[in-house]
Structures are given as C-alpha cells and as structure tokens.
Amino acid sequence: MKKLLVSILAVSAMMTLCACGASSSNKLVMATNAAFPPYEYIEGKEIVGIDAEIAKLIADDLGKELIIEDMAFDSIIAAVQSGKADIAMAGMTVTEDRKQNINFSDPYTEAAQVIVVKNDSTVASPDDLAGKRIGVQIGTTGDIYAEDIENAEIERYSKYFEAINALLQDKIDAVIVDREPGKVFVSENPELKMIDEEFTVEEYAIGVAKENTELLDQINASLKKLKDSGKIDEIIGKYIKAE
Fold this sequence. Notes:
This protein has helices at residues 2-20, 50-62, 76-82, 96-99, 141-146, 160-168, 179-188, 213-229, 231-239, and strands spanning 27-32, 35-36, 40-43, 46-48, 65-70, 87-88, 102-104, 109-118, 133-137, 153-157, 174-178, 192-194, 200-204, 207-209. The chain is an alpha/beta fold.
C-alpha cells in the first residue's frame, strides 16, 4: 500500500509539472514566424524586430529569459495550445476565429492589410481584385479575407517573400500583406508599388493559451507599463519611421 501511495503521488506530481507548461519555468518561450519585417526577421543568427524587442522587455519585467522559436505561421497557435510555447507574437491580428483557440492580450499596435502589385498593374483598389490571382501567406488574415473576393484565384505561400517572388515573376496579380512588411518589400523591389487604399485595419496582440490566465494578466500588466512609459512607441518608432 505504501509503494502504491508513493507511485500515485509521483504520477500526480509529474502531471502537475506538465500542466504548468513552459511558463512555470524561468523562461518565456515565444512562438513566431521570423519572415515578417519589421516585426520579426532574422539578422545574422538572431531573430530581431519590433515583436522581439517588446517580448524581451516583457520577459525582463517577469524575471524570465526570452526564448524565441521560429516556425511556420500556421503552426504558432497550435504551439501555444500544446504548451510548446508560452506566447504567440508574430504580428498576429486579433480575430474572432483565433479567439476560439487562444486568448489575446490587450493590443499593442494597430496594423493594416494592404495590396502590393507591379507598377504597371491596373489594380487600384480592393474592388479591382475581383477575378484576379492573389498571393497570401497561409493562415494570415489576408488569407482569410481573400476568400471573400469575388472569383479570385487564391495562391497560398508559406512565407510572404515567396508570394512577392511569384508576383515579380507574373505568376500572380497581387499580394495581400500586412502594411509594414509590404513597405519593406516595395522598398526592396522598384518594380512594385503599394495601393493607397488599405484592405483592412487591424490590431496586433499577444496570444496566450486559454487556461493560462495568470500569464495573460502578467503580460497585460507589463504591456501597460511599457505603453505608459513610452517604450512601445519608442521601439516601433525605431523600426517604422513617421511618414
């Protein structure tokens, strides 16, 4: 009986440790897709960008070491749900569908979906996308919203730059992309331009597992400090210059 009791207690302890996830340790694991400048991208051997810097300040405030895991965008929510990561931070827009699977922090910045085309394109507004071949990144809000475009042929890519390359090769007619990465792609490719009219306006926030309400509260408290101190505006201003 004594051995049985010890075994039960040991199994119970193991289950408790597993249930706590990575956030119970001294590390804060962030799931991202590091192909989304200026929010997250690879420079040398490091993942840098707006989200990486904000996450580092949050981790410091919580007394944790930030660990950034790079993965496909459409794997990020599952990583948080399974406990492989503590937070999702990847220029992630708050949507009702995503809120079914994870909780979101308070927003930390506003964003928009825009349309990138070649300079000689006849596409001048979102209405002109009807019947066109449109490139999107899998799992993004651009992917979701493109479904509503009449008679459009949607081409899905793992990363935005793959869609941009397809546009440059005339395999597609337009790319729906988040505004700031869109600016980067246009600045790097003189053959491209961005349509003035925004496709959608959105908010970015940090994703946390549904059951991890304690971490969510801590992140919201840290975000408030960073907003009140002006640090978030400072970080965003470092990467995104006022026009």
